[in-house]
What does this fold into?
Amino acid sequence: MGTSSPLSRVPRVALLILASLVAGDASAQEVQDLGDFVLQLTEARGPYEAEVREALDSGDLEAIVETINNEINLREEVLITFISAPAEQPPASYDLNHNQILITYRLAVELSDLFGGDYDKWFPSLAQIVLHEMGHALIDVNQIDPPPAGWSEYVADQLAFFIISEFYEAEEQLRWAAEHFFSRPDSRLNEETDHFPNAERAELLLCWINGKIEALEGETGPCAEAYWELVSDWEWRLGPSWKEPFGNEPGSD
Ligand SMILES: [Zn+2]
It folds into this structure.
């Protein structure tokens, strides 16, 4: 285990810049703070799952969950439960009947194997997946305007990228994940379910990563445009859910 987190929280500078560019929608009703995301690392079975469980218990995942809880109001409690499960269990899912995200330790073991056990590389991939499920949960629990039919996967991917990029500036770690995991055509996750991931979505993720770099350098292009669209879309979607309106960070005017 390294001593520093692969994803370190950064001040919300980018958001403050963006806030001035995106018109807010004050018409929607504010979401009350009635619940939180709650992380549960249940008992792991076998040495490999125990090893990833220990890594996941280092606090990095908890910190991401806390970031969301500190920034966003939730109408109900949502559990994020890691489980030892048989191979038939989908690696990552959201159960809207029980407000519960289920992630298998097996998925974390697969990621860890893929990246040679390098936590700094596999953790961001896992974080993207967990945040994707949190995106589904947010849309469901906060009754956020549903995305157009067939686009919920894309929109959940957007939220995951939005959080990692705005709060952690971890695009480069995500680039690694996009190029080495999400894009793999032979990914077993692909065969089991079309839920996650596929080459088209990996390509989009790479486009947002490159688009953010272009956008912040003042360049234009389809990916920079896609990035701006993503940011304004999620600021709008989450409008009634933010605890603090943009620009109201402590210390700012
Ligand atoms: Zn999904």
Remarks:
- The two ends are 40 Å apart (CA to CA).
